[in-house]
Amino acid sequence: MSDNPVFSDKSFKVNPQDLTEKPMTLNGTIIKTFVLTLIVCLAGAYSWSQGKLHPNLIGLFSMGGAGVGFILALIIAFKKEWAPVLSFAYSLAEGVFLGAMSLIFEMKYPGIVSQTVLCTIGVTFSCLFLYRSGLIKVDEKFKSVIFMATAAIGLVYLATFALSFFNIQVPYIHDSGLIGIGFSVFTTIIASLNLLVDFDFIDQASASGSFPNYMEWYGAFGLMVTLVWVYIEILRLLSKLRKN
Question: Do 109 and 242 touch, CB atoms closer than 8 A?
């Protein structure tokens, strides 16, 4: 089981009649992941450029993109057969969100976005190398540890979001002090290790030959969810380091 809720065992149950079509393949999933990544980049570039021309749109793009992306992610998680269409819309929404959010950070910390992009690419290919080389074994114990750490981070973020409605700020973890930087380092590492679990799940699902072709889009979408998280965590970490 993957820590990414998109890749849970329940999510990968398919209808028997769907198995009559061309099965899911690893190469197909990789190609579709690149397609969705390209869409995110293009949408992000558009959001960035429009935000620079019309600063009043930055907030709308950021909040709107995040909200639409979240809703679409929930729909795809429950209706995986819609992934070939909705994964495009999800990537567009996330691209708009990331472009606007990145512009906000870039205006405050010039050069931080290019650093974040390079770090995200480096982390992704490093995790792929670690997985393919077998240097890190993605066994059940590894998955359980990552699952618990991911769940803990999710609870912290959920509590932070809920308390913000009452103007209560969680101390330290979002500051640029040692505790805040340490928290960001931890979340960045856990987000990155989730890539290993996602690679393993996609690899095993593709090798089984028992999943229909539309699951390639679903697998690519699930991997995009983790990549977006990795990018955001790296951006937050670098911003804290730049404050010091």
Answer: yes
Span 164-187, pLDDT tens digits: 777 777 777 888 889 899 999 999
SS3 23: strand
pLDDT of 27 above 60: yes
**In this model, does residue 2 exceed pLDDT 70?**
no
Classify residue 167 as left (phi > 0), alpha (psi -120 to 50) or beta: left
In the chain, DSSP finds a helix count (H) and a strand count (E) of: 7, 0
Provide CB contacts within 8 A for 216, sequence distance 6+.
24, 25, 28, 29, 31, 32
Cβ atoms of 65 and 47 within 8 Å: the answer is yes
Q: CA-to-CA distance for 29 and 26, rounded, in angstroms?
A: 5
Q: Which of 128, 101, 146, 69 is nearest to 239 (CA)?
A: 101
Burial of 4 (0-12, 13-18, 19+ CB in 10 A): buried
CA distance 219 to 216: 5
* Closest of 137, 219, 236 to residue 185, by C-alpha: 236
Two tokens, residue 8:
């849970």
Q: How far is CA 18 from the centre of its chain?
A: 27
